[in-house]
Amino acid sequence: MGTKSYKAPEIVSGARAGYVGPPVDVWSMGIVLFSLVSGFFPLEEAKSSDWRYAKLASEQTKGVGACEAIYSTYKRQCPFTAPLRAMLNAMLSIDPAVRPTLEALKAHEWLNPPQRAPAGGAYSYEEDDYNDPVVYRGLELDEDEEMEAFEPPEMAMKIMRQAADRGALA
Q: At what angle do helices 21-38 and 82-91 cross, to 10 degrees?
């Protein structure tokens, strides 16, 4: 059955009889990835009675990407990098025929950042030798840094644990 938040539009609408592999899985992975990087679920369910989905569907018909459509419902700019935004826009395409294949996702730029060797030609962990513009964060902050608090949009559906249907597991 699956959790309704992860079900692809073609499954929810009944347009497809049963589960049809990769396009459905790509939609679900897009929902998971969006939720992980944003801190909130993009929609409750992929059907027109969910106002978030209705807005997404309307915006996609105008050529607006999924990330921009979802964030615009909260009157915010999408904060994702261009490669992540492009990948999520493709994964969350309502039309399953235009969703990327698993092979295309595996080769996507966001999952395969360019490797840059330092001037000496060999990889080194010395900060001065590796000119990487990306700032990697760990659990520790430098003395002069402060952790920036993240608050999802007020109307966003919060990520929370869901109780399993014990009857279904028996």
A: 140
